[in-house]
């Protein structure tokens, strides 16, 4: 379960440094935008998790007659987006999308690197589908279960079976994501891997903090200094190469189009039951 107050605090703190360090998130956003075509007709767009406005800016250029409702949990992120865009075609809403009242309809609903922060993806998808206009599209990117597999591998080794807790957040498996989305027509799920390289494990941890993506789960996990030293030593020994260590990002792009719903029951289980 994601602690939303903690999540908001961390993204507020990271707003000023997000664009400098969010290299993978930008690549995910670019991949999402590349699925769209220029449209000069006036359309209504809902963007979930607009952050500093990187994707929002591209949407404004791609859809020059569009209006965009841009939602984000963190007010400091929205402040950065406002200063970046300065457009009267964007309406910003500072709110948790899981609590947001949706009282209008949209031609396009889009979200980059945000769905992993939702506690009930199934219910959110249902609500979004309801406000999607016929023929409209819903697209989002999120992270897969192999994200940071290097870190999780050495963490499990360092724990030596004394805990079943994971270091940080759990992400989606492809099968779980497909099950969540399979009730909707024209579903397409693709995946991609990105690898970043850092001089040290500390630099990797630093980059994660600077985008606000550190662990925001409720509850506790093992954090002893000796364990972290062992994790870092194992990481550098097993994965270090020519003075750098890799960090793998496993990502999904999901797209669906509003149409008749398939027969069968939707999976309405909580998010914890659908992650790796």
UniProtKB/TrEMBL annotation:
Enzyme class: transferase
Chain ranges passing through the membrane: none
Pfam families reported for this sequence: Methyltransf_25
Catalytic reactions on record: malonyl-[ACP] + S-adenosyl-L-methionine = malonyl-[ACP] methyl ester + S-adenosyl-L-homocysteine
Gene Ontology process terms (BP): methylation
Gene3D superfamilies membership: Vaccinia Virus protein VP39 (3.40.50.150)
Known EC number: 2.1.1.197
Key words, A-Z: Biotin biosynthesis, Methyltransferase, S-adenosyl-L-methionine, Transferase
InterPro entries in UniProt: BioC, Methyltransf_25, SAM-dependent_MTases_sf
Domain Methyltransferase: 45-136
The keyword Lipid biosynthesis is assigned to this record: no
Pathway assigned in UniProt: Cofactor biosynthesis; biotin biosynthesis
Family: Belongs to the methyltransferase superfamily.
PANTHER family recorded: TRANS-ACONITATE 2-METHYLTRANSFERASE-RELATED
Known role: Converts the free carboxyl group of a malonyl-thioester to its methyl ester by transfer of a methyl group from S-adenosyl-L-methionine (SAM). It allows to synthesize pimeloyl-ACP via the fatty acid synthetic pathway.
This protein's name: Malonyl-[acyl-carrier protein] O-methyltransferase
Annotated source species: Ectobacillus antri
């Amino acid at each position: 379960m994601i602690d939303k107050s903690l999540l908001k605090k961390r993204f507020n703190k990271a707003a000023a440094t997000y664009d400098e360090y969010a290299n993978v998130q930008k690549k995910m956003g670019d991949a999402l935008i590349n699925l769209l075509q220029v449209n000069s007709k006036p359309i209504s767009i809902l963007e979930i998790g607009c952050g500093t406005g990187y994707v929002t800016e591209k949407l404004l250029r791609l859809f020059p007659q569009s209006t965009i409702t841009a939602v984000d949990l963190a007010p400091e992120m929205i402040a950065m987006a406002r200063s970046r865009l300065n457009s009267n075609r964007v309406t910003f809403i500072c709110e948790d999308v899981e609590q947001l009242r949706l009282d209008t309809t949209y031609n396009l609903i889009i979200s980059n690197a945000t769905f992993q922060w939702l506690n009930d993806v199934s219910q959110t998808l249902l609500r979004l589908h309801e406000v999607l206009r016929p023929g409209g599209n819903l697209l989002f990117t999120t992270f897969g279960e192999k994200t940071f597999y290097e870190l999780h591998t050495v963490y499990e080794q360092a724990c030596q079976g004394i805990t079943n807790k994971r270091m940080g957040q759990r992400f989606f498996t492809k099968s779980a994501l497909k099950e969540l989305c399979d009730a909707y027509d024209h579903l397409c799920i693709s995946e991609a891997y990105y690898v970043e390289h850092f001089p040290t494990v500390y630099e990797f941890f630093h980059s994660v903090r600077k985008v606000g993506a550190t662990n925001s789960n409720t509850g506790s996990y093992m954090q002893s200094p000796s364990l972290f030293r062992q994790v870092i030593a194992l990481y550098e020994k097993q994965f270090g190469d020519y003075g750098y260590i890799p960090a793998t990002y496993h990502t999904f792009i999901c797209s669906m189009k509003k149409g008749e719903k398939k027969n069968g029951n939707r999976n309405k289980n909580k998010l914890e039951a659908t992650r790796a």
